[in-house]
Amino acid sequence: MALIVQKFGGSSVADAARVMNVARIVTDTYKAGNDVVVVVSAQGDTTDDLIEKAKEINLNPAKREMDQLLAAGEQISISLLAMAIEKLGFPVISLLGWQAGFNTNSVYGAARIKNIKTNRLNAEISKHNIVVVAGFQGINRYDDLTTLGRGGSDTSAVAIAAALHADKCQIFTDVEGVYTADPRKIPGAKKLNEITYDEMLELATLGAQVLNNRSVEMAKKYSVELEVLSSLNPVPGTIVKEKVKMEKMLIRGVTKDADVALISVVGLDDNPGVAFKVFAKLAQKNINVDIILQSVGRNGTKDLTFTVSKENGPLAVSLLEELSVIDGKKISCKTNVAKVSVVGAGMESHPGTASKMFEALYAQNINIQMISTSEIKISVIIDAEEADRAVAAVHNAFIPQD
Length: 402
Ligand code: ASP
Ligand code: MG
Known about the structure:
Blueprint: E1 3-8, H1 16-31, E2 35-40, H2 46-57, H3 63-87, E3 92-95, E4 102-104, E5 113-116, H4 119-126, E6 130-134, E7 137-139, E8 145-147, H5 153-163, E9 168-173, E10 194-196, H6 197-205, H7 213-221, E11 226-230, E12 238-241, E13 253-269, H8 274-284, E14 292-294, E15 301-308, H9 313-321, E16 330-343, H10 353-363, E17 370-374, E18 377-383, H11 387-398
Parallel strand pairs: 1-2, 1-9, 2-6, 3-6, 9-11, 10-12
Antiparallel strand pairs: 4-5, 7-8, 11-12, 13-15, 13-16, 14-15, 16-18, 17-18
The protein binds aspartic acid and magnesium ion.
């Protein structure tokens, strides 16, 4: 007998028919002789709808109250799924995050899991109950509800699989696995049989929607092998693990991230400490900076360009305006940009990956504004309007089409 953790995203439980469909998948797994712990997200667009409801009343509500509100979404889906499983004639119990032992820190809206007290989970499993757990939520040391950040149910599932030493962790979604590009936009995108944690982490961070990046980080840390598969079409999905068989594919995926603001400061003094002062100011307010470009100093001045999330753009500009090193310099913030990236461990040993990507963009007459690389990825910042065309062209250049 194995212990299997199965996670279902919001689209997989969007309505009554989908909830019954999930109940069938779960009970089939249970009937085969396994213990099953199920983690679910809020139904469909529930979380977005709750955020809208809050905005109608207060544009800047306390984060604690936001978490109190958003945690309600998953409470609905766990109880409904438990009722569906009960209807099929199987023993089941639903648990909120705190009931399942999820202890987190107190960063409302982006809480980190500190530990899972597994007594209750283990007790229910040993009674042979199917356990349905609310994803995305926990409790802090003040007994207040917290949420883990958008898409956090993936992390809940991986955390349970790690804490219970589960034999399998399956992440069910509305696509059949991890693809070389978003299959809803790029018709030639191919499903991957396997991918490494590191590649998956880059893809998730650079805009692939299929898995939350923190969940991949945690899966790597605790060696939880993940299977990403469809709740609607029972075909093998994608396995995410430490090492995979070398495939001929140089690139595992092409992603687009439109959540980018590009900030430039022109004519800074070419002196030591300028970059430090700029980025220390942003770090104090927890603003995450991504790509940084500094021009070569000329006539005693230099320019600094960097990217932050769209949400942080205006705040970053107003913080910089407070700095004396910026006094009187021109600051601009562009939001009509996007980041397009290629990811693949194969590029480490294959020169020419960058030039192949740039050639594909050149052939489309797409101008590159910034470039950044790591051992297994290359990202470019380009005009937002050209991003979909860029993804298609770059994908076409790297992924053989049949
Ligand atoms: N319901 C939450 C969200 O929409 C958590 C999740 O879906 O994983 O962000
Ligand atoms: Mg959701």
